[in-house]
Amino acid sequence: MPDIVINITDLNKNLGGKQILNRLNLQVRKGETFVIIGRSGSGKSVTLKHIVGLMRPDSGGCFVFGTDMARATRRDAEAVRNRIGYLFQSGALLASMSVGENVSLPLREHESAKMDEDAINRTVREKLDLVDLDKVEEKMPGELSGGMRKRVGLARAIVRNPELVLYDEPTSGLDPIGTAAIDDLIISMKKKLKVTQVVVTHDMASARKIADRIGLLFDGRIYFTGTPQDLDETQDVVVHQFVHGEIAGPMTEKSGETKRFRKMADNPPSSQAGGGTRKGGAPEKPASAPAPQAGAGTEPAAAPSPASDGPGLPTPPPKAVDAKKQEERQKKEEEGEKKGQEPA
Ligand SMILES: Nc1ncnc2c1ncn2[C@@H]1O[C@H](COP(=O)(O)OP(=O)(O)OP(=O)(O)O)[C@@H](O)[C@H]1O
Ligand SMILES: [Mg+2]
Prior knowledge:
By secondary structure, the chain is α/β, with parallel strands linked by helices. The protein folds into two domains: 4-218, Rossmann fold (3-Layer(aba) Sandwich), CATH 3.40.50.300; 234-300 and 319-338, no CATH class. It has twelve helices and ten strands. The longest helix has 18 residues, at 176-193.
């Protein structure tokens, strides 16, 4: 069985009266790049904050390098954090410090006794170079573009050569070339330095390129885990809807968004009645939708793992596309719309 660096077990977290994480289970293996995808607000950043110990769960375990961050003393949690690099979604640079000072901060906080000023400056330059930033040490964060700030945050996250790096949307706000460069950096961190990495991203092209495995966060848990290929091949309706960016489907149905989105798409100011067709999106029914399989509609998290997820790491399987069910639901929605009913 592979070494497990992160082992989250039945983690629950309620925030603002809402169950954000609901018996979430996640295992990340040593040396792998695990990508977390999921809708905005699904709890991706909250999950990373648990891993780094910035948030503690209501219940459940969050083991990182064998230490349960949910119950660790401040000192033990700090010892684990020393082995982790964390790129915050916002970049989280200190506005009153120069870029050089920001990047060197983790070195000064933890290793000032061991590193002299020259070595610190050299390391800072080396990491800034890695993220393709030159001659910015003296600049203040406010003088940089959003994408540059993101890269400074990334340089800071890796400045101490951590064993585990958590990236919260490393490529958001970057142009396609900048995105490709960060993807390559993440790939080379894995290949050359054997770093274990967890990457939260909305960029499916990046996810496919960098991931060993991808986990889809849905309904407060890692709903699906598999290789990029598994993700593309699965017939699970939830995964399918997310990956193909479809408006109608189980992800948007519960919240009433399906109906709202379709209303927006079907009723642009100059449009005629759509008669049930969707505009500007994927077909309503996936072309590959098979007939319902036995077990379709059962609780996904309770089922065994897809074939690709190696031994000992149970994750939910793809749920079969229940095309008929979906068609019926859509019909109902259309009828409701015609009657002028409001979404539930
Ligand atoms: N400190 C907090 N207090 C209360 N609610 C919070 C807190 N942090 C996050 N939340 C809520 O938890 C939910 C998940 O937030 P999170 O930031 O993890 O989403 P996300 O999946 O990272 O979304 P995005 O893709 O937009 O970054 C959201 O509804 C958010 O409002
Ligand atoms: Mg987030």
